[in-house]
Amino acid sequence: MIEISRYSPDQESVWNEFVALSHNSTFLHDRRFMDYHSDRFTDCSLMARDEGRLVALLPANEAAGVLYSHQGLTYGGWLTQRKHFDATVMLRVMDAACEWLRGNGFNQLVYKPVPYIYHAYPADEDLYALHRCGANLAECSISSAIDLQNLLPFDRGNKSGVNSALRAGIEINQSEDYSGYWHLLEQVLQERHDTNPVHKLDEILLLHSRFPECIALHTATLQGELLAGVVMFKMPMVWHCQYIASSAQGRDMKALALLFNRLIEEASEAGVRYFDFGVSTEKHGTWLNEGLLQQKSRLGGRGVAYNVYHLKL
Fold first, then answer.
1. How far is CA 160 from the centre of its chain?
2. Domain 2-134 is of which CATH architecture?
3. Which CATH architecture is the domain 145-305 placed in?
4. Which residues contact 42 (CB under 8 A, 6 or more apart)?
5. Which of 37, 76, 275, 287 has the fewest other C-beta atoms within 10 Å?
6. β 108-111/79-80 pair status
7. Taking the CB of residue 129, how many other CB atoms lie within 10 A of it?
8. How would you label 239-253 residue by residue, b for 16+ Cβ within 10 Å and e otherwise?
9. What order do you get walking across the sheet with 225-234 strand by strand?
10. pLDDT tens-digit map of 191-244
11. Comparing 2-134 with 145-305, is the CATH topology the same?
């Protein structure tokens, strides 16, 4: 029999130990990451046990009678492990969760599954369970990812840009100067998109201190001057671009082409399967930034869906 319980802080070590062994989790699901913005969300993460044995976790928060796959995370459906888990168990977990939610006054589940490229082993049992429960696909955003085992080459313009940046003497390095980069990032986002980074400088510094091997800033410089950069979220299966920015001079000198060329090489050498540029959509997937998507496409990126499902309870 599946029993559902609500996560509490005294379960942190149990939660993190399970996440470390899950085949569809990332460091984003570690409580040290999830709880950095705990003041903004009412956590309602769920833990599913089968005859006392923990079999699944659901990172989540609650608001106005709705349980959300955690709104502070890009993705995070049921996290599971390979051993003793298949679609039959997932169906029982989902049924028990729906019963628990109804019994606790919830009227809807908003669910963001972990995209398949982050899976260390196939783990789409939750999608089948959602279908069986009558969930509807409510949102679809499109990301661009490179399959590092079957690379598409850069287009002619980016190949030329890499060579031009190399001839100019642009250097690519990992950096700890988050403060300097955040100044450039905020300036670029304001000027070009009238927006701000999701993470403030103190937040990204905190997360980097907690996950130094997983969060890394890589920059392109010329004679010490910062031209461009990207913050990488590094996971076993995927290196994900979190923040990308380039100065006007960096754009003229094609600094990002050289930076991505180097990072893609490093990810491939590290045995990573996918290089994910991130989504090119806004407004819950209804608006596509075609220019941004085409930039990623010219670097070899192709589509990966980031879906959101709604389940009426």
1. 30
2. 3-Layer(aba) Sandwich (3.40)
3. 3-Layer(aba) Sandwich (3.40)
4. 61, 62, 63
5. 287
6. unpaired
7. 24
8. bbbbbbbbbeebeeb
9. 42-43, 60-63, 66-69, 108-111, 302-312, 136-147, 274-279, 238-246, 225-234, 215-222, 171-175
10. 887 888 989 999 999 999 999 999 999 999 999 999 999 999 999 999 999 999
11. yes
User: 258: Cβ–Cβ under 8 A, 6 or more apart, which residues?
Assistant: 161, 162, 165, 166, 170, 172, 220
Contacts of 92 (CB under 8 A, 6+ apart): 2, 50
Residue 130: pLDDT band (50, 70, 90) is: very high
Residue pair 304/276 in contact by the 8 Å Cβ criterion: yes
Per-residue pLDDT of 140-168, as tens digits, reads 999 999 999 999 999 999 999 999 999 99
For the segment 85-112, the average pLDDT, to the nearest whole number, is 98
Structure tokens given for 193: 């998109």
